[in-house]
Amino acid sequence: MNRRAIVLSISAVTIAGFVAAALLYQRFSPPQETQIVTQASSSLVRFHSPTLGPISAPVTIVEFFDPSCESCRAFFPYVKQVMAQYPKDVRLVVRYVLFHKGSEEAVRLLETARMQGLYEPVLAAVLEAQPLWHDDAQAQKAWEAAAAVGLDVEKARATMNSPAIDEILAKDAEDVKKVGIQGTPTFFVNGTLLTKFGPEPLLELVQSELKKVR
């Protein structure tokens, strides 16, 4: 297959994935504004949460994220595009939600990758491989994908049930209830809930927050 055909194939798969994700999100969408926003202010960003992008960025996207969620997988490239468009101004904080069969295993895997300084490449690999493992409680294909980008699996398996990771999962589960998360992905931008699902609404909310701080 030539390069142009490969690009067209990837584009078609991405579009199809996003359409499917949008339909899934509509089924599992979060409750509308009032209660969720009122409760969120003190429960969005925690010191233990994975952060991508500059700590000093004036705009913070908080994503309540389930690595087994197909909508999260489909949306992730668009989040990365927003961050790439504003590399000094936007950071992403990841909060874990465990709604699916393989979610806890995958989150523990991701946290061991963070311990090894491999969070971003392992996250990308695990999401790419998600169709192969998201119904597997052991997330075996996720482990294989992580190993392919450099994760020391033996070391990771030895630390995946550590008290530190238990505490992260427990705190995130507590905040998921406190904020009122009922579907993933759920986004907040500088504390404001994204109520319309899609790349454009997310970008528009980020740009609106940027105007406030510039």
Structural write-up:
This protein is α+β, with helices and mostly antiparallel strands and 214 residues long. It has one domain: Glutaredoxin. The protein contains 9 helices and 5 strands; from the N terminus they run H-H-E-E-H-E-H-H-H-H-H-E-E-H. The protein has helices at residues 3-27, 33-40, 70-85, 103-115, 119-128, 140-148, 153-159, 163-179, 199-213, and strands at 51-52, 59-65, 90-96, 186-189, 192-193. A 5-stranded mixed β-sheet has the order 1-3-2-4-5. Strand 2, helix 3 and strand 3 (90-96) form a beta-alpha-beta unit. Helix 1 (3-27) crosses helix 3 and helix 3 runs parallel beside helix 9 (199-213).
Q: Please give the CATH class.
A: Alpha Beta
Q: Based on helices, strands and strand pairing, what is the structural class? A: alpha+beta
| Count of separate DSSP helical elements | 9
What string gives the helices and strands in order? HHEEHEHHHHHEEH
Average pLDDT across residues? 86
Helix share bin: 55-70%
Beta fraction: 5-15%
Total domain count: 1
CATH architecture: 3-Layer(aba) Sandwich
Instruction: Report the major sheet.
Output: 5 strands, mixed
Shape: globular
Q: Enter the CATH topology name.
A: Glutaredoxin
The unreliable regions are 1-40
Question: What's the alpha carbon Rg, rounded to whole Å?
Answer: 17 Å
Termini, distance in Å?
Answer: 47 Å
Q: Could you give the order of strands across the largest sheet?
A: 1-3-2-4-5
Number of strands: 5
